[in-house]
Amino acid sequence: MSTRTVLHEADIARALTRISHEILESNKGPENLVVLGIPTRGVTLAHRIGSLLADFSGVSVPVGALDITMYRDDLHRNPTREPQPTQIPAGGIDGKVVVLVDDVLFSGRSIRSALDALQDIGRPAAVRLAILVDRGHRELPIRPDFVGKNLPSSSDERVNVRLADVDGIEEVTIES
Fold it and tell me: Is 0.90 topped by the overall pTM?
């Protein structure tokens, strides 16, 4: 098995900076935004994006977490998945532009689960998707609005996102 690093710490920081600027530009500012991360690493990335949005706009943007565990269609194959807390910011999501944040987009099934989970919480005005790594191989018609890096990969390769807050190291690797 060979592993190669495709993003280093500085690359990840640059990608998140670009994504944050694109979110503000697309939304025409920070108003009505709510950023929700999908556990585990999506939550860390969402908090980083929330901080960057506040730095660039001067306005605090609510950040939370959206657990999708019970909405997944693979629970029968992966029943040991531990649910994480869902934390919706105080203002809720009704009428807001929700930016879902995750680390890797692959089949699109996690995002479909997130959309189902959102529907049970409220009715956002719009939902946008921010992804650190888009590796392709979609099984569902889901496309990210903001992408840190497009990483064409084989379906038998594994993309690993490691973040200092969670893993003690900051990198994106691909294993073949």
Answer: yes
User: What domain range includes position 92?
Assistant: 3-75+82-175
Report whether 155 contacts 137 (CB < 8 A): yes
Do residues 99 and 49 lie in contact, with contact meaning Cβ atoms separated by under 8 Å?
yes
- Coil, helix or strand at residue 41: helix
Looking at the DSSP assignment, which residues form a beta bridge with residue 126?
A: 97
Report pLDDT digits (tens) over 44-97.
999 999 999 999 999 999 999 999 998 987 766 766 668 889 999 999 999 999
Q: How far apart are CA 162 and CA 172, in angstroms?
A: 6
Domain count of the fold of the chain? 1
110: CATH: 3.40.50.2020
Q: Is 124 exposed, middle or buried (0-12, 13-18, 19+ CB in 10 A)?
A: buried
Chain-wide mean pLDDT for the chain? 95
Strands 3-7 and 171-175: antiparallel
